[in-house]
Design goal:
This protein is 30% helix and 24% strand. With 485 residues, the protein is an alpha/beta fold. The chain folds into three domains: 93 residues, MurE/MurF, N-terminal domain (Udp-n-acetylmuramoylalanyl-d-glutamate--2,6- Diaminopimelate Ligase, Chain: A, domain 1); 227 residues, Mur-like, catalytic domain (UDP-N-acetylmuramoyl-L-alanine:D-glutamate ligase, 3-Layer(aba) Sandwich); 150 residues, Mur ligase, C-terminal domain (Protein-Tyrosine Phosphatase, Chain A, Alpha-Beta Complex). Helix 3 packs parallel to helix 5, helix 4 packs across helix 9 and helix 11 runs parallel beside helix 12. The longest helix is centred in the middle third of the chain and has 14 residues.
Length: 485
């Protein structure tokens, strides 16, 4: 492949050397440069690719793509562009022969619900015999290959490479979570989604290395609807109008609102020891009944969205209802089977919005007691700790404050911040620093009819302390505790 072919989708100036030269590899990690590579200099939060230009030149790179003005070694082609992340996305699409054009692509954005909705869509489509790839918070699935996720939305090169693998193994569809960070950093550039989905929006990922304010968070989310052909929007969300500002897609809506194209009515909570579910009726562009083995109104929204999408693919009502009746998503209101008369679940709720939604939902099932165990991650906004503590104290009968991923912070400092919030509400609380001991306390002190939720870790199978990830899976902790009970 020639360099000028790779550059066909971007605006650039050639500052040194020739453009019509052969290149062997497209690379953005200096350690992977080989002779003839084109190296894209990405300015990241930790390192800057521009500082490796001398090194990649010595390794025999044919060209570098830059966004900064500086001195360059002789004998290497230098291409300047305004945004090298955007350039990488566009170049990767060309490098892998535009694989997104060979798939039906579905992108899901929103503060919560992305993961569950993605798995619901995958389940429904696969129930009809269609082959679906997935890229998300928990994992990437390419045919029979399952790859644990590092980021909700990977780097653009990885996305395009993954798309190409999906095409190779015969996938017809790809459903992926479009995070605000991924949209902000142009990881999702280089192609147009066939369908874009908006679940909901509330302040999150603000501060630190994430978004400077809520307006920036909203703006990044809204980018998806300038990069898709059809947008499916939760009409009930108060930011539905703002998320569509400047949209270029056609729009359909879902929700409980009578104005929604696909709407839910007649919801009924289903409860028995160890089981929480929900049923409702779909009306509007389709008409049928749905029941699910996962609880909550928010899962009505997630499933309604999946239904609205799958209508476009001619999926039968039978296939939709069969798939939703047995859907299960790791770490998303995941019920843990127990031989006792209380209910235990694992959920990824890790901010005030998701915790409030979860606990409000569980409160509707009228448990004897609602017990909420959680911690907060280190090196993230302190406001989240105060807010989550207050939410739990207001909605749960007992809050068990423990550790999550302290990262480089002291666990005790994080716990103390959470307790500041907890004390603003009326609920009782207990502090148990060790997460396994905290879970053990919940199980050993459970009463008949209790609903206990272990919040924050969800699908994660590690605990990050001082830069090291130690294996820790709550399912295994529960099994160990039950074995010794």
């Amino acid at each position: 492949m020639y360099l000028d072919q790779l550059l066909e989708q971007i605006s650039y100036t050639c500052q040194q050397g020739e453009v019509h030269i052969p290149v062997t590899e497209l690379v953005y990690d200096s350690r992977k440069v080989v002779k003839g590579s084109v190296f894209v200099c990405i300015t990241g939060a930790v390192s800057d690719g521009h500082t490796y230009i001398q090194e990649v030149a010595r390794k025999g790179a044919a060209a570098v793509i830059v966004e900064k003005q500086m001195e360059f070694p002789e004998g290497i082609t230098v291409i300047h562009t305004e945004d090298t992340r955007l350039a990488l996305a566009d170049m990767a699409a060309v490098y892998f022969d535009h694989p997104a054009r060979k798939l039906i692509s579905i992108g899901i954005t929103g503060t919560k619900g992305k993961t569950t909705t993605a798995y619901m869509i995958k389940s429904i489509l696969e129930n009809t015999g269609r082959k679906v790839g997935l890229i998300g918070t928990i994992e990437t699935i390419i045919g029979n290959e399952v790859i644990p996720a590092n980021n909700t939305t990977p780097e653009s090169y990885i996305i395009q490479k993954t798309f190409a693998k999906m095409v190779e193994v015969g996938c017809e569809y790809v459903v992926m979570e479009a995070s605000s960070q991924g949209l902000m950093l142009n990881r999702l550039a280089g192609f147009i989604f066939d369908y874009g989905i908006f679940t909901n929006l509330e302040p999150d990922h603000i501060g630190g290395d994430e978004h400077k304010d809520f307006e920036d968070y909203l703006r990044c989310k809204s980018k998806l609807f300038k990069q898709c052909r059809i947008g499916l929007i939760n009409l009930d969300d108060p930011y539905a109008k703002e998320i569509l500002e400047g949209h270029t897609c056609s729009v359909e809506t879902y929700g409980f609102s009578e104005k929604a194209d696909i709407r839910a009515t007649k919801e009924v909570l289903v409860e028995r020891p160890g089981y929480l579910g929900i049923s409702y009726r779909v009306e509007g562009l389709m008409s049928f009944d749905v029941k699910m083995n996962i609880p909550g109104r928010f899962n009505v929204y997630n499933s309604l969205c999946a239904i609205a999408l799958c209508r476009h693919f001619g999926v039968s009502i039978t296939d939709i209802t069969k798939a939703l009746d047995c859907v299960n998503v790791k770490g998303r209101v995941e019920l843990v089977p127990l031989p006792y008369k209380f209910t235990l679940m694992i959920d990824y709720a890790h901010n005030a919005m998701s915790l409030r939604s979860l606990l409000t939902t569980l409160r509707e099932y009228n448990p004897s007691r609602l017990v909420c165990l959680f911690g907060c991650g280190g090196n993230r906004s302190r406001d989240r700790r105060f807010e989550m503590g207050e939410v739990s104290s207001n909605l749960a009968d007992l809050t068990v404050v423990t550790s999550d991923n302290p990262r480089s912070e002291e666990p005790k400092d994080i716990i103390n911040d959470i307790i500041v919030g907890v004390k603003k509400g009326p609920g009782n609380y207990i502090e148990i620093d060790d997460r396994k001991e905290a879970i053990k306390y919940c199980i050993e002190n459970a009463l008949e009819g209790d609903v206990i939720v272990l919040a924050g870790k969800g699908h994660e199978n590690y605990q990050e302390i001082k830069g090291v990830k130690y294996h820790m899976d709550e399912r295994e902790l529960i099994a160990d505790i039950l074995a010794g009970r």
